Amino acid sequence: xxxxxxxxxxxxxxxxxxxxxxxxxxxxxxxxxxxxxxxxxxxxxxxxxxxxxxxxxxxxxxxxxxxxxxxxxxxxxxxxxxxxxxxxxxxxxxxxxxxxxxxxxxxxxxxxxxxxxxxxxxxxxxxxxxxxxxxxxxxxxxxxxxxxxxxxxxxxxxxxxxxxxxxxxxxxxxxxxxxxxxxxxxxxxxxxxxxxxxxxxxxxxxxxxxxxxxxxxxxxxxxxxxxxxxxxxxxxxxxxxxxxxxxxxxxxxxxxxxxxxxxxxxxxxxxxxxxxxxxxxxxxxxxxxxxxxxxxxxxxxxxxxxxxxxxxxxxxxxxxxxxxxxxxxxxxxxxxxxxxxxxxxxxxxxxxxxxxxxxxxxxxxxxxxxxxxxxxxxxxxxxxxxxxxxxxxxxxxxxxxxxxxxxxxxxxxxxxxxxxxxxxxxxxxxxx
Length: 432
Known about the structure:
Its cofactor is Mg(2+). An 8-stranded mixed sheet has the order 4-3-2-5-1-6-7-8, sandwiched between helices. The protein has a 6-stranded mixed sheet with strand order 12-13-17-14-15-16. It has helices at 10-20, 30-39, 57-70, 99-113, 120-135, 171-174, 178-185, 204-212, 256-268, 278-287, 311-322, 342-349, 369-375, 391-401, 414-424, and strands at residues 48-52, 75-78, 90-92, 95-96, 139-143, 160-163, 194-197, 216-219, 225-228, 234-237, 243-246, 295-297, 302-306, 330-334, 355-358, 385-387, 407-411. By secondary structure, the protein is an alpha/beta fold. The chain folds into 2 domains: 10-287, 3-Layer(aba) Sandwich (UDP-N-acetylmuramoyl-L-alanine:D-glutamate ligase); 295-428, Alpha-Beta Complex (Protein-Tyrosine Phosphatase, Chain A). Helix 11 packs parallel to helix 12. The longest helix is centred in the first third of the chain and has 16 residues, at 120-135.
């Protein structure tokens, strides 16, 4: 058990949690189930939406949250990872929770766990749910951390489950094929409850697993759909014949229509207990923001930040770059985690990027820059790549090489984008 006199601040709690379990990632529900049985209620006192997927889940969560808040509901949201401050992971009514609230929750979990060794993510997930139960929001939205079936958030039965997309990522834990990954993601679906699939060409196994579990599939291109409007905007449609004329989402990219469609479908499935007007949906779509997803900082040098860390996300980023007007040269700073495929990230971006700066972030799981360079030998022309072991040095070098009208893309992971955010938006603070 933690020394309560020593753990008197959030930084101390987080540092201690990182060392509590021998593995950084240890999938399974047994530990969180045992602790929650001593800590929280068997059934949650609010409607619950769980959102998983390879890409798009953060955007889907942000849109659902914004729509609910526009409708006047008090929301609880748990997401991961964070960019700058751990507090970003737990939000109540759109605001990050305080250090004090997190520390109080951590103390309760530490007492309830006894000698049970929890991972960093499990500790945080239990803390978020403990805070939500005590704060009594009108709706809670949980973002899956990794996979679905064995992820800690899957301990609780969602009223609606969403899988935004399936792609090749986290293969060391989820499997080497799309079918295997679909099976793991489908683990959040529940019998007799809606299972929203936000991908037209999702692997067939995802829908098949929803049906095997007795869930009610609502898949994009089948039960739900969207189309562009004739006079601007877009139309969301459902089998009931409902058609909603909506404005473009504030978040950039054609793929955001898919994420918005999934968010709307999830909330429409809760219409009886959580009625939401069309005007609230419109307002929420226009208010939703998500830092680090094609986040643009304009100026004489334009900064573009994107956490894309797999091939599918890089393709979505490329679509945004195609529509982005850059007057000068585009440079990119890339740093990735050791379990990622840098080749799949770089490939879609090659037509847009003139110079590459390869680096290593401070994340304990960061890929060493020498390994990153070796992996990309065949993908990048040698003169186009600069190697710097320190990420801040790489950002400095890329910025110094730029001229007015140029743009600088920072990409590859949350920690990579976080380093750029610290210099562009220093008032937001920083905490592991």
